Structure formats: structure tokens, C-alpha cells
Amino acid sequence: MSDLMAVILAAGKGTRMKSALPKVLHQVGGRPMVQHVIDAAVKAGAAQNIVVIGFGADQVRDCLGDQTEYAVQEQQLGTGHAILQAKKAIGDFSGTILVLCGDTPLLRSETLKALFQAHCQNQAEATVLTARLPNPTGYGRVIRDDKGQVLRIVEQKDASLAELACDEVNTGIYCFQKAALFSALDQITCENQQGEYYLTDVLEILVADGSRVGAVPVGDNQEMLGINSRVQLAEAEKILRSRTLTELMDNGVTIMDPASTFVDAGVSVGPDTVIYPFTWLEGSTVIGANCQIGPNTRLQNAVIGDDTTIHFSYGHDCHVGDHATLGPYVHLRPGADLGPGVKVGNFVEVKNSHVGANSKLPHLSYIGDTDIGERVNIGCGTVTVNYDGLKKHRTTIEDDAFIGCNSNLVAPVTVCKGAYVGAGSTITKEVPAHALGVARARQTNLTGWVDKRIK
Ligand code: UD1
Ligand code: CA
After folding, report:
1. Which of 49, 167, 210, 225 lies 20 to 30 Å from 66 when distance is taken between CA atoms?
2. H or E, element range at 31
């Protein structure tokens, strides 16, 4: 069992976001910002997480589910008060409490590990993560004595002019020894400019007690960027995006134009894949090696094999095998599952359908609720008629079948192995193996018809 538990403060409204959505649920890199914080805590070794919720508590709970525990802070009376609300959920855990804020999505797990390590090595009761900022305005300042020992943290609104000149700030991230934290929290008051119970006051109380209070500087100031406004949200998005793209490039992915490429933090891409401009890879998308993706392609929760090409297309909750070629203008909807070597061309939509190896759907088709075998050729303009107005039905097209252009296959219906469907047919009955199914009016030619009409 890990000796580390994270408490993530996320009860505030985030007034400056001007949003009905709680601030911590706004997305950065395709995930709610508090999710990034939870992920960093888990990666740093926190075996248990408690998120302190208040504003929009139900929304936050619905969004995060049971990956974490919750403590509710009905009224936001300050960061110290927020931690006190988690006391019950913390229970008899006796190790280190890692305090985090839900609005710092750029935080790295390595930084948290380093903080926890320093905290353990120094056998400290409290260790605060600090940063030196060219403009420290708004942050709590870290006040040290002449030997460099941390004495206390003073909030902007409570600081003297001399204290305001200090450029070392509190990131709002700390490790605390649990018993020391709660015995100090019992002593804090709200006698300050904001009338709040400040968590930061714990440090001064611990120092007075003779406890060990340490500080660790953050390596990269960007990590502590707290999101309070939409402008800061966009800044964080940009930073996170560039981090994700850099990581992909470091792992052998070519990104032609990072400025127009948008990849969510959870996406993985194999080596030697080339991503062309104006491409979005989102959610849990996985791209194999040696693919060509884009330009102008958006994939959400898509799993793509190796050596596959997809351009000018949109796919969501779908799977594409190796050596496939898609595009331009393909729409893969949920449940589209394309086998290896499949070719899908322009203006083809596939939904909830399996397409077997090496089958071709080159132009202008709708394939819904269908099982297509291997080496099938779907002629231009084929429609699987899957909906009768009440229910959806499945179509089956077996191996080596050939569907002529502009056919309707009215489900439930099967075109058996190696069968042909004549162009322009509306097929409502099974076509047996190796048969030709034709279902259209025979052509009649009226000789001399045009001349008679002109007379
Ligand atoms: C806090 C610190 C400050 C530090 C800064 C870093 C205190 C008193 N001050 O200030 O030293 O420089 O963070 O960003 O701690 N929250 C609750 N319940 C509350 C109050 C806040 O859950 O009652 C949550 C907020 O949702 C937010 C986090 O705690 O996620 C920080 O609160 P915020 O009001 O932003 O703190 P600051 O005033 O910025
Ligand atoms: Ca505040």
C-alpha cells in the first residue's frame, strides 16, 4: 500500500470562467482539467484520491465517477476549511497527504514525485512546492528567515509592502504528514482580509511548534498555471498540445505542421506515422505505425492499424485494420470495424458494420448494420436499407460477393458467397451462392419514338 493520498481542492465556482460548468470540468487536451490532476497524482503514487467538491458537486461527481472519492464542502470558506471537509473521507490513513488544486492541468507527475521524495527524505511535517515568478501578483508569498528556512506563507491581500516584493510564491501544492496537518488545522482562524480559513496558515503553526517545514522549487513554472479564465484555458491548451506533439515527435512520429495539429493527451501514435495538417486525434484514439493521417481528418476514439492511410475523413468509435486506405470524405460511425486491406472511397458512410479483409467500398455508399465478408466489391451508390421506420435490421454480404452499382439491399437480407447483384436492383430476398440477383424492370426500346414525338 502506498503511503500517499491526494486531496484535490475543487469546490470553487471559478467565477471568471463565466460558465454554468464548474471550472474544473472545462477541458484541456480533451479531458476535464481535474482529470489531469487526478492522473498526475495517481502516476506519482497516490493510491487513494479525494476530490473536494462544492459548486456543481453533482456535475463533477457524474463526470469523474468512481475513480476517486469525494468530500463535499457546502460553503467555500477557504482552502483550510476545504481540507477539513475531507477529514472523514481520509479516515485513519496515517501517511502523507498530497494537497492539489483541481485547476492546474499542466502539473507533471514527476514534479509531484520529487516533492514527495524531498518531503520523505527531510522527514518533514510539511513541504510546499514553490515557484519564482517574474510577476508574483495574486499569489501567496513564501516568507523565509535569513537562513532560508520557511517561516510562513502570506496571501497577497494580507501582505506588507516588503512581503509583496518577494517573488517566491506558493503553488498551492503541498505534502503534509497527516496528523500534523489536522492538529494545525484545528488552530487556524479566519482573521484575515478575506475572512477565509487559509490552509497556508498551517505552515506558520507548524513552524511555531518546532515541526519541520520544507520547500521544493518547481522545475517549470508553466506547471503551476492555475486556470481562472477562458484566456488562461486557451494558454493551457496550447502548452499541453505542444507537450503532447513534442512527445509524439520524440517517439518517431512526423508532424508536418504542429500549429494545425490537435492531439489529445491520451492518444497514442506509432513510429513513422505522418500526420498532415488540420488533423484532430481525440479521446482514446490509437494509431499504428507507418500510417498517413490527414490532412483534414478528425478521429475520435478510433483504433487504426499499421500502414493505413486516412485523408479528409471523420471517424468516431471505430476500428480500421492494417494496410487500409480511406478517403477522401469517408464517415466512419460508431461500430464501424474495417478489416485489413479494406479500401473506402469518397462519400461512403459506414455504421455498426464489419467489413472483411480486402473488401472495397469505393464510392457513394451507405453501409449500416451490415456484415461484409472478404474480397467483396460494393458498387457505387449501394445502400443497405437497414431501417423500416420502426426497427433496424442487418444485411449480410458474404465473401467474394459483387454488388452492382446503385443497388438497394433491403434488410434483413443476405447475399451469399460469390453471388452477384445486378446494377440498379432492389434486393429483398436472399441471393444464393454464385447466383445473379437482378431486381429491376426490363428495358424496352420504342423504335422511332422520338421522331413521332417531334411530329
Ligand atoms: C491559494 C493559496 C495561495 C497560492 C494559490 C496558488 C490559500 C489561502 N492561498 O490562493 O497561497 O499562491 O492558491 O494558486 O490557500 N477551494 C476550495 N474551497 C474553498 C476555497 C478554495 O475547494 O473554500 C479550491 C478552489 O476551487 C481552487 C483551490 O482551492 O481549486 C485554490 O483556491 P483559490 O481561491 O483559487 O486560492 P487562491 O486565492 O488562488
Ligand atoms: Ca481565492
Report:
1. 225
2. strand 31-32
